[in-house]
Amino acid sequence: MKNSEKPVNNKAKEQDKQPGLIVSPAGDAATELKDFFIDSLKDIYWAENALVSALPKMIANATSPHLASTIKEHLAVTKNQVVRLETIFDLLGEKAEGKKCEAMAGLLKEGDSILEETAPGPVRDAGIIAASQKIEHYEIATYGTLIAFAKTLGENDAAKLLTQTLAEEKEADMLLSDAAYSAINFDAAENTLQQDIAE
Questions:
Q1: How far apart are CA 172 and CA 164, in angstroms?
Q2: CB 29: neighbour CB atoms within 10 A?
Q3: Are 107 and 135 in contact (CB under 8 A)?
Q4: pLDDT tens readout for residues 136-179
Q5: CA atoms of 116 and 179, how far apart (whole Å)
């Protein structure tokens, strides 16, 4: 008997759905992909605006001039990304508005904790890079998904603009890796080694 000819055991499927694990949708829950796409755009719009506010603190706390310069450049890029998202909202006939992105809020809060938990110098710089790359990886995943949604919906102009942003996020991640491996991580490790010797 072929797999396609085997009878489907609906009882087994029903048993897999445990009542306590099923989430009831909110009253304004998306029912169509386009609604979910727009909702996701609002999420990343909030996230990018929050990042514009948070990056100056990262710049101020970086002791490596190269790292500070890298983040400063990405701040300018992020401001352009906000404008690009506003263009996408216009293309879709939607008002550009943000919806709190819990993921970005959590990542920024973690970034603040890293600053508090590290002394100024190469270890803090390494922490800033770690926090920044977590943010970049989140953005890379988000923009990749948004591009897929835009293409599926036939929103090709939006997809092109989102693809530009995705390329910028990937470049920012690469530049942060370069900063880490060119000196900062090694300086942080050497700093630890010198402290161990002193003790």
A1: 13
A2: 11
A3: yes
A4: 999 999 999 999 999 999 999 999 999 999 999 999 999 998 88
A5: 21
* DSSP 8-state class, residue 25: P
User: If phi over 0 gives left and psi between -120 and 50 gives alpha, with beta otherwise, what is residue 156?
Assistant: alpha
The token pair that represents 120 in the structure block? 């100024």
In this structure, the chain runs to a length of 199
Q: What is the pLDDT of residues 25-70, one digit of tens each?
A: 888 878 899 999 999 999 999 999 999 999 999 999 999 999 999 9
- Give the separation between CA 86 and CA 41, rounded to whole angstroms: 10
- Residue 89: partners with Cβ closer than 8 Å, 6 or more residues away: 41, 45, 95, 96, 97
Give the pTM: 0.82
- CA 71 – CA 83 distance, rounded (Å): 19
Hey, CA dihedral for 137, 143, 146, 148, is it positive or negative?
A: negative
Q: Cα–Cα distance between 80 and 196 in angstroms, integer?
A: 45
Residue 38 and residue 23: Cα distance in Å, rounded?
21
